[in-house]
Design the sequence.
């Protein structure tokens, strides 16, 4: 600090320094800033005195100037004394004596300025002594010590004598007087002061007494608080806190209990800030650490209880122990040690000091304080008070009075909430501290929930400003967190309070389900771990749930349901979680559980929905079983439970449906199972492949008929539940998305999901996805109103092109829309004009159809390439896809069946004596109403169907354009219409079959019914192999319906003539559209049609056997499913049935261990097949009525698809038939006569191989070899000839060669070939004339020729001629045997007689039998299949040629015909002779030949090379692959061929028998021995079966 006295002033003291110093002191003492002036004066005086000490200034000069300055300030002497004191200390330390002397002289000079008492206070006793102010410094020291001791260390005792009792008595009287008058605290305070003074009272004790009195008179807050406040001015601030602390300490003994009055006083003083919480808090027990320890201990104890509850207890003793432990624990919790902090907290809450209460709570673990009931109740009370005005305004329900709560008298209590914003600021905070312990006050719980409800109402109403909206959003999120942290946990701790649960639902239902489910998730998975009490509750709930579930059965559903209800009111999440876990393990619990859930509250149902979804979405659970081929049973059980629960109870579905949609979006289709179950149960729409035909029929009627007769379970009362499902779908816009997702997911299953999955599982998932789509679409169609449906489903082109919906699914979704549209348009038109005539109505209907369908016709064009529309018109395509079975036919039988059922029911009601009359009346009324509804519905449908048929009649001419070929048209029709739709659903399968028939019946131009059916039945292997399980079932249904139609036509000539005779679909010449050809001769006649049907049956057998032999799982499973479905109509022919039976039997044996599901299917089919056996007929009965000549070959054909020998003859026949049939009727007549010859030739060609395989004789084998060679070469030559002269058929060539080698055979072969050629080639007029002649001859010899044909095998002929007498005998024997045993399919042969020599017949018959046998044993050889295909291809070319050059073969034909006639006469004579022998031998022969089967088959395989060669030829003539012209031929050919096949088969059988006779004659001994061996080796079991069945037929 700078010096105030410059050195110049001291040097020139007398001149000007003195005056300057005085001037300075005056200035400093006048300074307004008191402190600064004081310090500066001190410094100035100190510097002046210091100059004196150093000797710069004389002490008298200094004392003079100080005398002048001393007057400037009052405290100047004191300041001067301070300066002296400091200098005294400084100089006493200095060694220089003179300075000390200067100091003493200065003090002595100034003694007149400063009083000696002041100096005595401040200066050192020794200095005082040297100044002469005191005598001795030592004495002075002693004296001061005594005084100090007396002052500071001696306590004056306020003993009772001094501190008079009367003072306290007066004090208590003063404080205890009546305070209601004008007495104020100031007045009393003065009195207290007087008492303290007068009676010498201890002020602290007085304060203590004031507090005591205040404790006793708590109602006088307004008096005592100001009194204490003013009294505290006289005390130190800490005094009050210490006194309270001592009071609390007094009660801290283990047995002590702090009185609540003390807590209250402390609380009030805290609220008025008379003491600090921090100061008081340290005086309270227990310490914070102890509290934390206790909290931890509680958590540990809770966990232990949980562990004990979840332990498996075996004996009853343990349960007793458990109960004891529980009691002990309860006792422990009942006596908590006195917690002064909590006591104070409670008092604070009671008086409404929320601020201090909050800070105490913050010192403790969360919810520790409120876990003590008094505190929780106090806090609840505070909340009651705070929310009162708002609750009264918005929360009170209508009509409720309620008891108003008065506000706290305390002005410092929290402000009462008037608005939701204030509620958020204060109350929500309080509730958060309460947490789960709001459960102590259900009334407050209800109030908070009602306020929440009121807020949600306001929140959801629009029209508020942006700022308000933001506030509301904040409030909403706060409400959600309160719900999560307070309301739900509190509900868990409430004791089964159903009303609270319902109250809470009132608020919850205003939340979107996403929020609700989020809350439930928190509640279930997190809340229960947050608090020891909740941990215990969770364990107890599970324990109780286990107890109930163990005892739950169908019988005790009611009592158990009540227990479940009770338990669910407070802890639904835990309970349902356990119940669902049980259902996933034991699916038999589903029904009792569903029934027992009827006592739940709405909230609980909602929680159940959440729990189900959570269980479904559980990532830890595998959705497939370990074999990876089936969906896990837990998922199936849950799905089933879902359906039942959602149907029975009003649970919101949105969450579940959205879950399924989300899973589909993610490409997972497992969960469709849930949707399927829900729709099935809630809407009563069932999807099952196991429907009976009656049910299917009912499903083609109206809604009422569907409900009555279409489903397995008569699911009644679905109106409400289906309405709920519909609302859920529409409200959340899930209807169309689900449909589209399912439609897309079908392929997703295969191409995205299916990568690593087992094929079987992929099929299952695909089926599930598809079935659910069909079911869901059906639900939407029947439940959505027209407007809803049309509004939601886009047009067909948008569906397919934008949403990439597969076409079948897109049309499936659009179909109801078209129907709705058309019917509404139709109604409009009807209203517009009142014309009632049927004609008018139909016209209006057609108009409305055109209006609705025109845009659809436009739209479908974009779905396929332009090329497609060359063959079929968009109109046809749209018509096919938009109609249903409902539009095509009325199921009259179904309606009758249901009406009759109702009549029976009514009769039963009448007969029932026990039923009360009023119930009887009700039931009868119900039945009558239903009956009327059904009849009305039938009538309505009938009218509708008639209208539709009228519409189709008008449309049909534009349907099929056939710009390319009819074949191509049929291809497109099958590819784009029939095949996709027939596997879509069971009803669609029936629809497709009906539609084909309808198109036929409508005589649609360019539609070849024959071709269509042929394509459907011919190659089913590929279609079957590419189906899933359910698709195979539907495909089977489709084939079944197709076969039904064919079988109906096949069964009776009259029906055939009526329904097919003159129809364009049965034209057999497929002429170019410009060519005129509709005459009768182009139609397929009845017998040829039967041959064609036989061919189809054979093809089906072939395909079936092929599939069964592949060993592929899918092939076998699917073909077995298809076969089971078509069992009513196939197999009809005995030998085909037997071939199948053997294959299926083999499957049964092979798959028993390996694939049990295939084994089960095969066994099922096998059993059903056996039961059908009595209804099967021999082949000759199946297709051999008029033209017996053609019967020989098919027998072999039927026997087994893969037989080596068979295909040749069969295919030859088919070819001939196909070609022949295309010609006019004249051809047919010729064919009949020629058939005999042809068959003989065929058999000749075929027999050689057969005999070889049988290996009966060396000579035979040679002949056969020769024939084989010739046939082979013949075929080659045939090809050459065909190139040169198209009319000549390969068989002719073959015959020619044979003829050279064997003169006798030659004739027969020529005859046959000639006839065949004639059949194949168009015939000229001359030929026709010849044919007529031949017909006459043939009619005379028909009976004989039948047999002749059968016999036709040239080797056999030779033998016959050699040994006529023997042959006759043999023939007779055979016949007799046939009659006795009903030899295989021989009845016709037996009865018919022919002039042809018997030797031939017997030989050929035997061989054919062998051939049959062979085909049985090895039905499907791939080689033969391939051959057939090749042959088909070849045939087409050949046919074409035949048509172009009709005349080449006339001369040959004539020759052949003559020869045929001669031969037939000879044969008939021979036959008569043989008859007797045949009868005797036949019995033997049959059994023998039957037994020979297996050996033959093996030989046959060896010889297959030869046979297949010939078969190639024969098949090559079959039409199916020929180009356009040939398609017509093909149809005809097919029909003829099949006819021939049938005829041939019968002939063949006869031949076999006759041939066997002839052989016996030629090599009697050898054969006998061979037969014996064969009998031993292979028991003829199969053949015996044949005999039995044929007997029956006879």
Sequence:
């Amino acid at each position: 600090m700078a010096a105030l006295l410059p050195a110049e002033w001291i040097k020139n003291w007398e001149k000007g320094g003195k005056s300057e110093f005085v001037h300075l002191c005056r200035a400093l003492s006048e300074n307004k800033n008191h402190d600064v002036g004081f310090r500066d004066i001190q410094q100035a005086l100190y510097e002046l005195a210091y100059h004196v000490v150093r000797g710069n200034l004389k002490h008298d000069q200094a004392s003079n100037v100080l005398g002048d300055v001393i007057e400037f300030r009052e405290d100047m002497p004191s300041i001067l004394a301070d300066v002296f004191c400091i200098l005294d200390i400084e100089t006493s330390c200095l060694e220089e004596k003179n300075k000390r002397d200067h100091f003493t002289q200065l003090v002595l000079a100034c003694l007149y300025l400063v009083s000696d008492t002041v100096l005595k206070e401040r200066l050192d006793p020794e200095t005082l002594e040297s100044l002469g102010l005191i005598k001795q410094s030592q004495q002075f020291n002693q004296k001061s010590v005594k005084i100090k001791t007396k002052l500071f260390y001696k306590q004056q005792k306020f003993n009772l004598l001094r501190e008079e009792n009367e003072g306290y008595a007066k004090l208590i009287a003063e404080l205890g007087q009546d305070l209601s008058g004008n007495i104020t605290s100031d007045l009393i305070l003065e009195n207290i002061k007087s008492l303290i003074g007068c009676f010498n009272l201890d002020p602290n004790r007085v304060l203590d007494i004031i507090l005591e009195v205040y404790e006793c008179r708590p109602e006088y807050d307004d008096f005592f608080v100001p009194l204490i406040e003013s009294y505290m001015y006289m005390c130190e601030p800490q005094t009050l806190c210490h006194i309270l602390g001592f009071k609390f300490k007094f009660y801290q003994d283990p047995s002590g209990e702090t009185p609540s009055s003390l807590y209250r006083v402390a609380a009030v003083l805290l609220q008025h800030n008379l003491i600090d919480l921090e100061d008081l808090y340290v005086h309270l027990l227990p310490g914070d650490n102890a509290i934390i320890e206790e909290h931890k201990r509680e958590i540990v104890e809770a966990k232990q209880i949980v562990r004990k509850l979840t332990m498996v207890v075996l004996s009853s003793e343990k349960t007793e122990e458990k109960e004891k432990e529980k009691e002990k624990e309860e006792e422990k919790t009942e006596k908590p040690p006195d917690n002064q902090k909590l006591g104070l907290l409670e008092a604070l809450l009671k008086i409404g000091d929320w601020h201090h209460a909050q800070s105490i709570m913050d010192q403790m673990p969360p919810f520790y304080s409120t876990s003590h009931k008094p505190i929780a109740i106090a806090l609840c009370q505070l909340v009651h008070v705070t929310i009162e005005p708002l609750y009264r305004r918005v929360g009170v329900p209508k009509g409720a009075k309620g008891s108003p709560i008065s506000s706290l008298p305390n002005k410092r209590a929290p402000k009462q909430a008037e608005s939701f914003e204030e509620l958020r600021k204060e109350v929500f905070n309080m509730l958060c501290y309460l947490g789960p312990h709001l459960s102590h006050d259900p009334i407050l719980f209800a109030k908070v929930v009602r306020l929440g409800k009121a807020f949600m109402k306001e929140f959801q109403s629009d029209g508020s400003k942006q700022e308000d909206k933001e506030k509301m959003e904040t409030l909403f999120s706060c409400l959600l967190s309160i719900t999560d942290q307070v309301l739900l946990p509190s509900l868990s701790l409430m004791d089964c309070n159903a009303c609270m649960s319902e109250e809470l639902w009132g608020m919850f239902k205003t939340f979107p389900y996403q929020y609700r489910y989020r809350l439930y998730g928190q509640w279930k998975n997190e809340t229960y771990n947050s608090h020891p009490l909740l941990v215990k509750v969770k364990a107890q709930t599970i324990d109780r749930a286990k107890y109930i579930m163990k005892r739950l059965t169908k019988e005790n559903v009611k009592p158990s349901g009540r227990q479940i209800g009770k338990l669910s009111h407070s802890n639904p999440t835990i309970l349902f979680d356990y119940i669902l876990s049980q259902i996933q393990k034991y699916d038999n619990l589903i029904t009792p559980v569903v029934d027992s859930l009827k006592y739940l509250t709405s909230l609980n149902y909602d929680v159940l929905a959440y729990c189900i979804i959570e269980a479904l979405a559980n990532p830890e659970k595998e959705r497939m079983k370990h074999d990876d081929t089936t969906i896990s049973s837990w998922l199936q059980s849950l799905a089933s439970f879902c359906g039942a629960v959602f149907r029975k109870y009003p649970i919101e579905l949105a969450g579940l449906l959205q879950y399924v949609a989300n899973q589909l979006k993610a490409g997972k289709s497992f969960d469709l199972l849930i949707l399927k179950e829900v729709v099935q149960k809630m809407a009563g729409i069932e999807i099952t492949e196991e429907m009976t035909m009656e049910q299917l029929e009912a499903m083609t009627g109206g809604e009422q008929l569907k409900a009555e007769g279409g489903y397995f379970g008569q699911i009644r009362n679905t109106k409400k539940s289906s309405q709920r499902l519909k609302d859920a779908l529409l409200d959340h816009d899930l209807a169309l998305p689900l449909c589209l997702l399912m439609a897309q997911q079908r392929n997703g299953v295969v191409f995205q999901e299916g990568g690593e999955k087992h094929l079987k599982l992929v099929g299952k998932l695909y089926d599930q996805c598809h079935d659910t789509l069909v079911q869901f679409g059906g639900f939407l169609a029947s439940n959505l109103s027209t407007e809803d449906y049309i509004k939601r489903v886009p047009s067909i082109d948008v569906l397919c092109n934008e949403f990439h919906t597969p076409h079948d699914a897109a049309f499936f979704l659009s179909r109801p829309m078209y129907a709705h549209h058309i019917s509404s348009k139709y109604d409009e038109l009807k209203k517009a004009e009142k014309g009632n005539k049927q004609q008018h109505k139909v016209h209006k209907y057609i108009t409305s159809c055109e209006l609705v369908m025109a845009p659809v016709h436009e739209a479908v064009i974009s779905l396929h390439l332009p090329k497609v529309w060359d063959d079929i018109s968009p109109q046809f395509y749209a018509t096919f896809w938009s109609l249903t079975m409902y539009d095509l036919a009325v199921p009259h039988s179904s309606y009758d069946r249901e009406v009759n059922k109702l009549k029976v029911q009514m009769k039963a009601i009448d007969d029932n004596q026990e039923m009360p009359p009023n119930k009887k009346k009700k039931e009868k009324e119900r039945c009558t109403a239903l009956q009327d509804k059904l009849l009305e519905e039938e009538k309505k449908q009938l009218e509708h169907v008639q209208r539709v048929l009228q519409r189709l009649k008008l449309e049909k001419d534009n349907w099929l354009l056939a710009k390319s070929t009819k074949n191509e048209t049929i291809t497109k029709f099958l590819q784009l219409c029939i095949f996709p739709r027939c596997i879509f659903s069971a009803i669609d399968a029936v629809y497709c079959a009906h539609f084909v028939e309808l198109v036929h019946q409508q005589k649609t131009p360019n539609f070849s019914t024959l071709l269509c059916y042929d394509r459907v039945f011919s190659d089913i292997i590929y279609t079957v192999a590419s189906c899933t399980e359910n698709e195979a079932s539907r495909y089977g249904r489709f084939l079944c319906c197709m076969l039904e139609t064919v079988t109906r036509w096949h069964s009776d000539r009259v029906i055939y003539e009526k329904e097919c005779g003159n129809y364009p679909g049965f034209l057999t010449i497929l002429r170019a559209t410009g060519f005129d050809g509709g005459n009768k001769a182009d139609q397929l006649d009845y017998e040829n049609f039967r041959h064609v049907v036989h061919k189809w049956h054979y093809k089906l057998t072939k395909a079936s056997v092929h599939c069964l032999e592949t060993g592929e799982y899918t092939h076998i499973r699917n073909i077995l499913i298809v076969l089971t479905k078509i069992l009513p109509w196939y197999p009809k022919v005995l030998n085909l049935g037997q071939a199948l039976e053997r294959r299926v039997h083999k499957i049964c044996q092979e798959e028993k261990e390996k694939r049990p599901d295939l084994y089960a299917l095969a066994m099922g089919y096998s059993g059903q097949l056996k039961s059908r056996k009595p209804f099967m007929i021999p082949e000759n009965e199946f297709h051999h009525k008029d033209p017996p000549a053609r019967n020989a070959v098919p027998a072999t054909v039927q026997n087994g698809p893969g037989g080596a020998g068979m295909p040749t003859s069969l295919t030859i026949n088919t070819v001939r038939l196909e070609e022949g049939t295309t010609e006019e009727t004249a051809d047919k007549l010729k064919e009949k006569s020629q058939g005999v010859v042809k068959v003989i030739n065929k058999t000749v060609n075929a027999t050689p191989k057969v005999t070889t395989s049988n290996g009966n004789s060396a000579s035979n084998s040679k002949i056969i070899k020769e024939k084989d060679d010739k046939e082979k070469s013949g075929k080659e030559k045939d090809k050459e000839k065909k190139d040169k002269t198209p009319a000549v058929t390969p068989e002719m060539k073959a015959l020619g060669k044979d003829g050279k080698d064997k003169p006798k055979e030659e004739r027969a072969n020529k005859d046959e070939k000639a006839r065949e050629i004639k059949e194949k080639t168009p015939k000229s007029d001359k030929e026709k004339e010849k044919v007529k002649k031949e017909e006459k001859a043939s009619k005379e010899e028909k009976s004989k020729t039948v047999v002749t044909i059968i016999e036709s095998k040239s080797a056999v002929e030779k033998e016959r001629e050699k040994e006529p007498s023997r042959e006759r005998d043999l023939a007779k024997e055979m016949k007799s045997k046939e009659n006795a045993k009903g030899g295989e399919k021989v009845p016709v042969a037996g009865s018919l007689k022919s002039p042809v020599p018997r030797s031939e017949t017997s030989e050929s018959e035997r061989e054919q039998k062998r051939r049959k046998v062979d085909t049985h044993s090895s039905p499907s050889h791939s080689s033969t299949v391939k051959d057939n295909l090749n042959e088909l291809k070849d045939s087409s070319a050949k046919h074409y040629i035949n048509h172009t050059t009709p005349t080449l073969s006339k001369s040959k034909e004539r020759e052949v015909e003559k020869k045929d006639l001669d031969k037939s006469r000879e044969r008939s004579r021979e036959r008569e002779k043989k008859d007797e022998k045949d009868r005797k031998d036949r019995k033997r022969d049959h059994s023998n030949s039957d037994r020979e089967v297996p050996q033959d088959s093996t030989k046959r395989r060896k010889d297959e090379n030869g046979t297949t060669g010939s078969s190639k030829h024969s098949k090559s003539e079959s039409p199916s692959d020929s180009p356009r012209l040939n398609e017509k031929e093909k149809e005809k050919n097919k029909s003829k061929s099949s006819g021939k096949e049938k005829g041939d088969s019968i002939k063949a059988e006869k031949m076999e028998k006759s041939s066997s006779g002839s052989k016996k004659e030629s090599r009697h001994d050898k054969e006998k021995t061979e037969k014996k061996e064969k009998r031993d080796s292979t028991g003829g079991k199969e053949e015996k079966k044949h005999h039995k069945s044929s007997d029956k037929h006879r």
Summary: The chain has a mean pLDDT of 75. Residues 1450-1491 form the longest helix (42 residues).
